[in-house]
Design a protein that fits this description.
The chain has one domain (3-278): 3-Layer(aba) Sandwich (Rossmann fold). It contains eleven helices and nine strands. It has helices spanning 8-18, 20-30, 47-59, 80-89, 100-112, 151-161, 185-191, 199-208, 220-236, 238-241, 247-265, and strands at residues 70-74, 92-97, 119-123, 136-142, 162-171, 174-175, 211-218, 269-270, 272-278. The strands form two sheets. It has a seven-stranded mixed beta sheet with strand order 3-2-1-4-5-9-7, sandwiched between helices. It has a two-stranded antiparallel ribbon with strand order 6-8. Strand 4, helix 6 and strand 5 form a beta-alpha-beta unit. Helix 9 packs antiparallel against helix 11. The longest helix has 19 residues, at 247-265.
Length: 279
């Protein structure tokens, strides 16, 4: 897909996640196959274990997931959720992701785990998905839509791609609905965005597109815990990862993570699991 078809925010995210520093950091520190926010049973729980619990919790909300199901993962990262869904339910999953570097890892792990016949990795943006209308029974996304410069366009794609009765389950780091103006600027500067979505934004946007809200489970405390755990892990393993990740990247990451932790503690951020159904 030509980059000119995507928003500048998507192109910026693509360049970032294609960098060697980001690829090595996320694969080593963030959770391996799963590079999203975890659900923690204890504050010091293993990051990968908590991250996999998010996948399991989201999947438990999907009704009718079976071998015959077609699933689209929007912003699939290294493809951990897609592989889990394919293993657990035997369904076919399209893992759509903008980073060619991450997608190389994804395809390799699919082959190694014998799942490349069920998981198709597609290099593309969720702002313009190269699939026909009504292609999917389920659409899934974890902590990716924030990187869009036109989140309404992503919601258009969700509505277009879902079959009638299809379900959309997703998470996204967001601003709280009552977040004061300007307080998230350090976070936005770090990730090169003008704004974040909010629970109210997504609920209203999807309602306008005819999707029924099946419930939002708010888990913002886990966002705070997750970024704190990533920061702690980065500090503890800095000597190890500096051979694969530049010191400048590590320093900027530690500063950025501290902004996420502080924003969450101040009540300016939101995170949780959304579930919608297309009429």
């Amino acid at each position: 897909m030509a980059q000119t078809q995507c928003s500048q925010a998507v192109n910026t995210a693509r360049d970032y996640y294609n960098s060697g520093d980001a690829d090595n950091f996320y694969y080593t520190i963030w959770g391996g196959e799963d590079i999203h926010i975890g659900l923690y049973q204890t504050p010091d729980e293993d990051i990968a274990q908590a991250s996999r619990r998010t996948v399991e919790t989201m999947a438990s909300r999907l009704q009718g997931l079976a071998e015959t199901s077609r699933v689209l993962d929007m912003g699939a990262g290294f493809g951990g959720a897609a592989r889990w869904l394919a293993k657990k339910h035997g369904c076919r999953v399209t893992a759509l992701n903008l980073s060619q570097v991450q997608n190389q890892r994804d395809r390799q792990m699919n082959r190694e785990q014998g799942l490349d016949h069920l998981v198709e990795v597609v290099d593309a943006s969720f702002e313009e998905v190269p699939c026909a209308d009504g292609s999917f029974d389920f659409i899934w996304s974890q902590d990716a839509i924030l990187h869009s410069g036109d989140r309404g366009k992503v919601m258009d794609e969700v509505s277009r791609l879902l079959k009638p009765g299809g379900q959309f389950v997703f998470t996204d780091p967001m601003a709280a609905d009552d977040c004061p103006e300007g307080v998230l600027q350090p976070i936005l500067d770090r990730i090169h965005l003008e704004n974040l979505g909010s629970p109210g934004f997504y609920q209203e946007a999807l309602a306008r597109r005819g999707l029924k809200d099946l419930g939002f489970r708010e888990h913002t405390d886990h966002l705070v815990n997750h970024y704190a755990r990533i920061l702690e892990e980065t500090q503890c393993r800095e000597g190890e990862i500096c051979n694969a990740v530049s010191q400048d990247y590590i320093d900027r990451m530690k500063k950025g993570l501290s902004h996420w932790v502080e924003g969450g503690k101040q009540g300016h951020l939101a995170w949780g699991i959304f579930h919608f159904e297309k009429s």
